[in-house]
Amino acid sequence: MRSRKLFSLTIILAAILAAFGFSPGDAHAQAAKPAGASAAGIATGKAVFTAAGCSACHGEQGQGTSLAPALVPPPTDVQGLIAYARKPTGKMPPVPAATASDQQLADVHAYLQSLAPKTSPADELKGNAENGKKLFAAYGCYECHGRQGAGAATGPRIGPPAITLAAVMRYVRAPTGQMPPYTAKVVSDQEIADIYAFLKAFPAPQPAKDIPLLNQ
After folding, report:
1. CA 6 remoteness from chain centre
2. How many angstroms separate the first and last alpha carbons of the chain?
């Protein structure tokens, strides 16, 4: 059954690439790239999004459903999307390379990006890190995520944020798991932007491969 699904996916992708004048190997000859640019890549991404079953949970156009959150605009960059697809959290099953290659996932990112509005309200907000620090304490965010957003027993690392401000806002308003939702009446968009700026001020954690004690 699985081999039949993969065969069908291959046929669909080959037909799309041929329609845009690409040979089957052309799209995979390039390294995974940011969202973008090519109509062929966007068309391929749309086909993969459906064939790999992403649309069943995230909606036909990545708008989100009761089963999974919205993916438009993409909440992270290309490499972040690929990394999450390979090792997701929650109920989402991993997407192996046999189902979608890195390049095909990059094309999915391009497709999702093509559906996103050119601007969002979050793009207009400028966060105040000092105020964000106060709000992070006042709203009790530190109780689950640690004083600097590095994570704790009850909440994951959120600092510095690996996703966009718009994605953070969507999650805060309609989170999954045990986190309660925060409506605009409780926390305004500007206050979320301030907290985001506070968390963004921290340096990214050092990769495990660069920590000698973890490589002995």
Report:
1. 24
2. 44
